[in-house]
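Recap from last week: sequence in, structure out.
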Amino acid sequence: MVADTLRWLRIQADRAIERGVSVERLWIDPGFGFGKTFEQNVELLRRLREYTSAGLPLLVGTSRKSTVGKLVNEADPAERLEGTLATVAAAVAQGAA
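Predicted structure tokens:
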């Protein structure tokens, strides 16, 4: 899954550049939580550093998502701040901008 999404993101970035978008305006976002299973989201979080190989800033949006809720055993999104902070710290440690 990580290799597939990284390949797709690189293709989309190349297309944007070919159409005149400045590389300085591009970020990549592997889509934490979007159409992925809990297991895929955990794998994504563990392997975020691989996305930095695209040479673009890495954006990771984990805020209060259901995966965070499962990780910290919290059903209420309003109570997922600590889990969100932990996933953000993990993302930054792996190169997220």
